[in-house]
Design goal:
The complex is a heterodimer of chains A (362) and B (126).
Chain A: H1 7-12, E1 16-20, E2 23-28, H2 33-42, E3 45-48, E4 53-58, H3 62-67, E5 83-89, E6 95-104, E7 107-112, H4 117-127, E8 133-136, E9 140-146, H5 150-157, E10 169-174, E11 177-182, E12 191-197, H6 198-210, E13 214-215, H7 218-227, H8 254-259, H9 265-274, E14 278-285, E15 296-299, E16 304-314, E17 319-327, E18 336-341, E19 344-351
Parallel strand pairs in A: 3-13
Antiparallel strand pairs in A: 1-2, 3-9, 4-7, 4-8, 5-6, 6-7, 9-12, 10-11, 11-12, 14-17, 14-19, 15-16, 15-18, 16-17, 18-19
Helix pairs in contact in A: 2-7
Chain B: E1 5-6, E2 11-16, E3 19-24, H1 26-32, E4 35-39, E5 46-47, E6 52-58, E7 62-66, E8 71-76, H2 78-82, H3 86-89, E9 98-102, H4 106-109, H5 114-123
Antiparallel strand pairs in B: 1-2, 2-3, 3-9, 4-6, 5-8, 6-7, 8-9
The chains are: A alpha+beta (362), B alpha+beta (126).
């Protein structure tokens, strides 16, 4: 089991650990999931996401062309220091992983899911020329700072960061060392992701804490992203689900939706042209019942029409929330559906996403 | 009201005449984390010792609550159904799960006392 550079720091804060993607990660601290969730929405929270892969790729002119084979973005549109959400696509048009890619000087930084990163690198490498270089930056930690007070807190530690716009980044200095900060995150809140050397990670995190940011574990990270309607790989996304089914058409650049030229294009083009038979939706149970992953979904006439992929109690919505895949003809917002929990069927409706909305700084 | 007795599945029971009150222990709530959903049995339902009688869900997962004692359900605690968070704040007091008319009081005697339960928890950390 691997540990991040902040393992002892978490331990001293009273973290409870779980095994996640081969890492011992904090699931929660002393406050617990609900309080951590609320702290993030009301003030600011920091998350150790160093288990995620930080891949740096550099290469010659053909690099962008090669990356376009497996990532359906228009690379010409990505400006320096700009970040984009997208995915690695397989030959069937399924999602190998979802990712954030940022153009930096000399190449690209790609943030990959921990459980997928080793396979991702193999898949990316297959598309690259021999003159391209890639490196998984194991010497770097990654921290997310999320919530309305993030800007003030980070600006006090690293002046200039408040100028960053959403999905943009830049290099800054921290204690004499170069660090990379992007304005992004995965909670539905304004916030930043900070990539810095493992040796600096604890000092930096202590400063975040001293300025009032609370430590947040994977538990609240999950409730936050679910309220924000964001996909989690292995739940809403996998190798058999296309981005169109996942309702992520927007993450395929316009030119690429028209021209294709990436793996699995035939299937994706078909999905775009003819629609999909099943689609990802938000689900709101009518009562307090929580529909966990794997819960079967039925139409009001009793036919099985889908399955829940994530479900929990949303502390900010103050109600249960879920996402899942259902047959497209039942996917209209406010459509009544039934959820089978412990052998009984409960009322629910198809809900718009996100369940909880905050405005990002643009 | 008798002293509390405890099960290996982290329920507590207290006995008053032939009426038992059952809840989940403080230790159980600490393992579960924030409780966000509770389902209690309907009056009249008969339950066997160690069979599933209620449901408790935290933000993390759903767990079954077992009855440490056989009998007929007299009442489920509606206040924790309406406010599941109360289970975290007072698990061994006001936030009991159900009351049950006990069939066989000798079952009560087989459960652990407080000292044995604390020892059991210390030996079986999770």
């Amino acid at each position: 089991m691997e540990k991040t550079a902040l393992y002892n720091f978490h331990k001293n804060l009273g973290a409870k650990f779980v095994a996640f993607a081969g890492y011992e990660m904090p699931i929660q601290y002393k406050d617990g999931i609900v309080k951590e969730h609320i702290s993030t929405r009301q003030t600011a929270g920091f998350f150790d996401v160093s288990h995620m892969g930080q891949l740096f790729i550099s290469g010659s002119k053909s690099l962008e062309q090669n990356l376009e084979k497996i990532i359906p973005l228009d690379f010409k549109e990505i400006k320096i220091n700009q970040s984009k959400y997208s995915f690695l696509i397989n030959d069937k048009g399924g999602v190998i992983d979802d990712l954030i890619i940022t153009r930096v000087e000399g190449g690209f930084n790609i943030i990959l899911n921990a459980a997928c990163k080793d396979n991702d690198i193999k898949e990316i490498a297959k598309c690259l020329d021999s003159d391209s270089k890639y490196e998984l930056k194991k010497d770097l930690s990654l921290l997310a700072l999320q919530g309305p007070k993030s800007e003030t807190i980070l600006e006090a530690i690293i002046p200039g960061t408040k100028q960053l716009k959403f999905m943009n980044g830049d290099y800054f200095k921290f204690q004499g060392k170069k660090i990379y900060v992007t304005r992004s995150g995965y909670t539905g809140e304004d916030g930043f992701e900070i990539s810095l050397s493992n040796t600096n990670a604890e000092n930096f995190t202590k400063l975040l804490s001293s300025k009032g940011a609370k430590p947040i574990g994977l538990g609240a990270r999950d409730t936050l992203r679910l309220e924000a309607g964001l996909c989690l790989y292995g739940h809403e996304l996998n190798q058999d689900i296309s981005p169109i089914q996942a309702n992520l058409k927007w993450a395929i650049s316009k030119r690429r939706r028209e021209e294709g030229g990436f793996k699995g294009w035939e299937n994706i083009q078909n999905d775009l042209k003819n629609g999909v038979s099943k689609i990802r939706v938000g689900i709101k149970p009518s009562g307090k019942i929580i529909a966990r992953e794997g819960t079967k979904i039925f139409s009001s006439s009793g036919d099985e029409i889908g399955v829940v992929t994530s479900g929990t109690f949303g502390p900010s919505v103050n109600a249960p929330v879920a996402m899942g895949y259902i047959q497209s003809k039942f996917s209209e917002i406010d459509n009544k559906i039934l959820l089978e929990v412990r052998g009984k069927k409960y009322d629910a409706v198809v809900s718009k996403l996100p369940f909880y909305k905050k405005s990002y700084v643009k | 009201m008798s002293e509390k007795k405890f099960s290996k599945k982290h329920e507590w029971v207290s006995l008053d005449g032939d009426t038992a009150t059952v809840g989940i222990t403080k230790h159980a709530t600490e393992m579960l984390g924030d409780i966000v959903f509770v389902e209690v049995p309907e009056p009249g339902k008969s339950v066997e010792k160690d069979s599933q009688a209620a449901v408790v869900e935290s933000t993390k997962a759903a767990s079954d609550v077992y009855s440490p004692i056989s009998g007929e359900i007299l009442e489920g605690n509606k206040s924790i159904v309406d406010d599941p968070g109360n289970v975290n704040s007072d698990p061994e007091g006001a936030s009991w799960f159900f009351k049950i008319k006990v069939k066989d009081k000798s079952e009560f005697d087989t459960l652990m006392n407080k000292a044995d339960y604390d020892k059991f928890c210390a030996e079986n950390p999770s």
